[in-house]
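Here is the promised in-class demo. Please do not try to memorize the tokens; focus on the logic of going from shape to residues.
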């Protein structure tokens, strides 16, 4: 049993420049968790480093600090955890540290070694509630599924997990708990969890399951009504129309309720096969789709289990563009089937299709994915600096390319897509937003290359 009244939750910032570096949008996990903890009569403050720096004076008064970490944010999360522990010694207070999120979920031993007292594995809401009650009331930690912790110098990993089956039971995220929330440029909103697909390089299924759990239209509409009216809403679902009929019901409910807001979401190319759904998206204010186009190399798509063909990719772009929707194409380079020719062919498609914006990711094997296990078993991972697991660095030995060649092809694709010539071309057609984006992408790439000069030298040595 311990005093537990004041909790600080922290989302670390990315150490590397990336395409959405200037977008200020927090992840949903901590604002939802904060709302739950407030219901337990706890004082809660959230620091999202993307929005505001951590107030260490506030941390010094906390009883428990929770830190969420994706793989590329793990080094910063661990640094924060160690800083909290040192601060606790300095102020002579017992401040516990709990880590959660995808990376600690799959590497709890590492997280415990890097300063965590507790690791919350998988979905955190119910586990956090049980952990807080156990710490407050002296309950047994070994009875909390999905919790890792140290006891008597030994790491303990409780089996099981606790998923929230009825998402309507969760409170709406409380963004007012975030320091600097007024700086948000976009409001995240989730209508479902889980994904029916199981792409080799994705950890969503491992974290949230293959079953798609859906919120009721009534709950989603109520949250829509409570968002800032002039702020763009991003639906963070991994695949908004995974259940097309349910997506249609939700959109029709928005129309019936008179809700029309500017919003965007992530989709698979299969959405193009539902023109009725695309029309409903437009009617409710959907301004952009973030499409997982991945590649035009059929062998790469088959390797990853994408369940889509190059022909479907091309048809989808044309169909969605016909609805006047912005397309942000997301491509991945580095499949075992990829060659210089296939990657350049995919880049050619990105240019030919006239998609509005694009990101050219390098295949990245985060812990918890089938890809990580496959490459690890084959001894092909040479870089375990988690900072580099951001889709912008080569961390493994490709099958038909050197690491340096793959890195250069990614840079080349970005340079071809975002350059002065394309900016001028867009300008001549009066498409000023596209022209500005071409200049923005060009400038961002140059900044990233300057920032990454040391790692590029290491990559050359690895190749």
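The designed amino acids, position by position:
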């Amino acid at each position: 049993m311990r005093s537990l009244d004041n909790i600080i939750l922290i989302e670390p910032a990315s150490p590397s420049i990336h395409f959405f570096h200037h977008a200020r949008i927090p992840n949903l996990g901590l604002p939802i968790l904060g709302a739950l903890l407030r219901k337990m009569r706890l004082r809660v403050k959230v620091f999202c480093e993307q929005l505001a720096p951590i107030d260490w004076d506030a941390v010094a008064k906390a009883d428990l600090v929770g830190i969420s970490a994706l793989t590329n944010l793990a080094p910063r999360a661990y640094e924060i955890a160690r800083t909290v522990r040192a601060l606790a010694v300095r102020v002579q207070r017992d401040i516990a540290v709990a880590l959660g999120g995808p990376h600690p979920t799959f590497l709890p031993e590492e997280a415990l070694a890097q300063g965590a007292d507790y690791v919350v594995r998988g979905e955190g809401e119910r586990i956090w509630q049980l952990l807080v009650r156990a710490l407050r009331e002296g309950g047994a930690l070994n009875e909390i599924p999905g919790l890792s912790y140290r006891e008597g110098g030994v790491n303990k990993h409780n089996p099981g997990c606790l998923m929230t089956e009825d998402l309507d039971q969760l409170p709406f995220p409380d963004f007012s708990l975030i320091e600097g929330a007024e700086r948000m440029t976009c409001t995240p909103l989730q209508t479902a969890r889980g994904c029916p697909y199981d792409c080799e390089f994705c950890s969503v299924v491992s974290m949230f399951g293959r079953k798609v759990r859906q919120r009721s239209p009534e709950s989603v509409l109520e949250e829509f009504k409570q968002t800032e009216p002039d702020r763009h809403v991003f639906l963070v679902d991994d695949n908004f129309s995974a259940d097309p009929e349910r997506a249609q019901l939700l959109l029709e409910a928005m129309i019936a309720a008179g809700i029309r807001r500017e919003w965007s979401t992530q989709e698979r190319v299969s959405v193009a096969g539902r023109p009725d759904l695309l029309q409903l998206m437009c009617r409710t204010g959907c301004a952009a789709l973030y499409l997982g186009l991945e590649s035009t190399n059929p062998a790469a798509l088959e390797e990853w289990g994408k369940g889509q063909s190059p022909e479907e990719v091309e048809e989808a772009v044309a169909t969605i563009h016909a609805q006047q929707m912005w397309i942000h194409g997301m491509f991945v380079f580095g499949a075992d089937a990829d060659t210089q020719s296939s990657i350049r062919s995919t880049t050619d498609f990105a240019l030919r299709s006239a998609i509005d914006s694009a990101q050219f990711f390098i295949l990245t094997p985060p812990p918890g994915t089938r890809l990580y296990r496959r490459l690890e078993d084959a001894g092909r991972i040479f870089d375990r600096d988690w900072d580099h697991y951001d889709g912008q660095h080569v961390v493994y030995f490709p099958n038909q390319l050197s690491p340096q060649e793959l890195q250069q092809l990614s840079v080349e694709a970005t340079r071809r897509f975002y350059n002065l010539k394309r900016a001028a071309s867009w300008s001549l057609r009066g498409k000023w937003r596209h022209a500005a984006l071409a200049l923005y992408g060009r400038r961002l790439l140059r900044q990233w290359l300057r920032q990454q000069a040391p790692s590029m030298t290491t990559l050359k040595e690895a190749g």
